[in-house]
């Protein structure tokens, strides 16, 4: 069986560093504390488990991992960042219910095409109990929800912004996959810190340019960004989702090329253009025109009586009565009833799954058999279909998402830096020893 990886939530099992609580640890182990985060602690055993999960990901390519002490530092930073976010989420009242958690697990097993028993078996082989997995997944969902809430409260996109983007976007539909490596600078960095960061980023680029290390391995070893342990891979992004600092240099770059060091608000960066693709072809969708009658199930009209009523309505229509007359008399759908049941033109899922299934099965002019949805019993008549060009609408929707994503990334990155700056953090992990290197080569 293929390895089970719940990709929906950032590979929470084998990719994201797990946050195993003290009570889930073997009681016979005497744990040391590697970090204090406000009033919480991160234990040595938690860090060891998280590092072990990362090593499992690179079992076939261990040479890409940094030295053990550097890897520990990176993983601990990720644990600290996640713990801070969980603490803020708890203070804000963000909670994930047991029902939501179970629904998420159901989606994971469906997407991975495995059973729950198979998932449990894979977890056991990875040395993770099912309860630990649930706890990790709940934490991941909690952080995701807090991020969504934060972004919704901070990010707005106006029609004017969309118009400006579409007017100046000479590469509409273009998307790029980027690698990103950051040497971070603190707020109010001193000249000495700036010089050290610039020397380090130049040394990293030198390693890559000389072929001593590929970009992914360099990001894993040296990047201070949250994508470090993914080799800096930021995935596919629309051109305008990318900060202008990076977007402005991309037109001159070829796939595989690495930028010169760039100074931004977070520090010094390198960007690698991995791939580029174009998705600007015209977009069309099938739209349906239909009429419908719905008999609602209520406390006074149970499912059997509703079914009998819709059967009678269909019999009248098949017998020759006008659909619109019967709809105005019988239908409980207040949206379409006054139009004689006319539902207008719509995309297939606009009226729900039950109606969608009928639309795809019927021919033009055909009246369906009675069918049930979550609200009642229905009949529909498919009047016609058409192919509708939605390119303009799709471009505007994509532009809105692009602007929102870019703003969200910037706002949340700023929020995380502020969160860490204001928190009490006692990192008790010994700093990594400097790595031997040539002049101008980074030292970790």
Describe the secondary structure blueprint for this structure.
Elements: E1 33-37, E2 40-43, H1 44-57, H2 68-91, H3 98-111, H4 116-125, H5 130-154, H6 159-168, E3 174-184, H7 191-209, H8 215-222, E4 233-238, H9 244-247, E5 262-264, E6 267-278, E7 284-296, H10 303-318, H11 323-330, E8 342-347, H12 353-361, E9 371-372, E10 376-389, H13 391-422, E11 425-427
Antiparallel strand pairs: 1-2, 1-11, 3-4, 3-6, 5-6, 7-8, 7-10, 9-10
Helix pairs in contact: 1-2, 2-5, 6-13, 10-11
Subcellular location: Periplasm
EC number: 5.2.1.8
Organism: Chiayiivirga flava
Quick synopsis:
By secondary structure, this protein is an alpha+beta fold. It is 43% helix and 18% strand. It contains 13 helices and eleven strands.
Tell me the major beta sheet.
4 strands, antiparallel
Q: What are the low-pLDDT stretches, counting only 5+ consecutive residues below 50?
A: 1-29, 435-441
The number of distinct structural domains comes to 3
Overall residue-averaged pLDDT value: 83
**DSSP strand count:** 11
Name the helicity range.
40-55%
- Strand order across the largest sheet: 4-3-6-5
Count of discrete alpha- or pi-helical segments spanning 4 or more residues: 13
N to C succession of SSEs? EEHHHHHHEHHEHEEEHHEHEEHE
The fold-level CATH name of the largest domain is: Chitinase A, domain 3
Rg result: 28 Å
Shape: elongated
CATH classification, class level of the largest domain: Alpha Beta
Q: What is the end-to-end distance? A: 38 Å
CATH architecture of the largest domain: Roll
Strand content: 15-25%
Give me the secondary-structure category: alpha+beta
């Amino acid at each position: 069986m293929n390895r089970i990886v719940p990709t929906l939530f950032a590979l929470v099992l084998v990719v994201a560093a797990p946050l195993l609580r003290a009570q889930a640890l073997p009681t016979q182990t005497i744990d040391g504390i590697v970090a204090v985060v406000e009033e919480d602690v991160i234990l040595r055993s938690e860090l060891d488990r998280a590092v072990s999960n990362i090593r499992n990901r690179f079992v076939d390519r261990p040479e890409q991992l940094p030295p053990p002490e550097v890897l520990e530092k990176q993983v601990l930073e990720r644990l600290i960042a996640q713990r801070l976010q969980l603490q803020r989420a708890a203070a804000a009242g963000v909670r994930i219910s047991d029902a939501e958690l179970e629904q998420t697990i159901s989606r994971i097993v469906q997407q991975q095409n495995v059973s729950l028993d198979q998932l449990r078996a894979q977890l056991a082989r990875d040395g993770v109990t099912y309860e630990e997995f649930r706890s990790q997944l709940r934490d991941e969902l909690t952080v995701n929800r807090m991020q969504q809430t934060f972004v919704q409260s901070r990010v707005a996109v106006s029609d004017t912004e969309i118009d400006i983007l579409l007017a100046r976007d000479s590469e509409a539909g273009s998307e790029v996959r980027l690698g990103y490596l950051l040497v971070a600078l603190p707020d109010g960095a001193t000249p000495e810190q700036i010089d050290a960061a610039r020397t380090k980023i130049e040394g990293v680029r030198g390693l890559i340019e000389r072929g001593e290390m590929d970009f992914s391995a360099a990001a894993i070893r040296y990047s201070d960004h949250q994508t470090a342990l993914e080799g800096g891979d930021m995935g596919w992004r629309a051109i305008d989702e990318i900060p202008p600092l990076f977007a402005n240099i991309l037109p001159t770059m070829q796939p595989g090329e690495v930028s010169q060091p760039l100074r931004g608000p977070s520090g010094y960066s390198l960007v690698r253009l991995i791939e580029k693709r174009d998705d600007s072809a015209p977009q069309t969708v099938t739209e349906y025109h239909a009429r419908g009658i719905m008999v609602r199930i209520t406390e006074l009209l149970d499912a059997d009586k509703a079914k009998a009523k819709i059967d009678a309505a269909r019999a009248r229509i098949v017998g020759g009565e006008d659909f619109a007359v019967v709809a105005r008399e019988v239908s409980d759908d207040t949206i379409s009833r006054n139009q004689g049941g006319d539902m207008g033109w719509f995309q297939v899922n606009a009226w729900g799954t039950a109606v969608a299934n009928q639309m795809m099965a019927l021919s033009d002019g055909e009246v369906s058999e009675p069918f049930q949805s979550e609200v009642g019993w229905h009949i529909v008549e498919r009047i016609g279909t058409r192919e509708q060009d939605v390119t303009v609408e799709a471009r505007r929707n994509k532009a809105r998402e692009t602007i929102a994503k870019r703003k969200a990334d910037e706002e949340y990155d700023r929020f995380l830096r502020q969160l860490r700056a204001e928190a009490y953090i006692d990192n008790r992990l010994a700093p990594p020893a400097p790595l031997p290197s040539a002049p101008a080569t980074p030292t970790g």
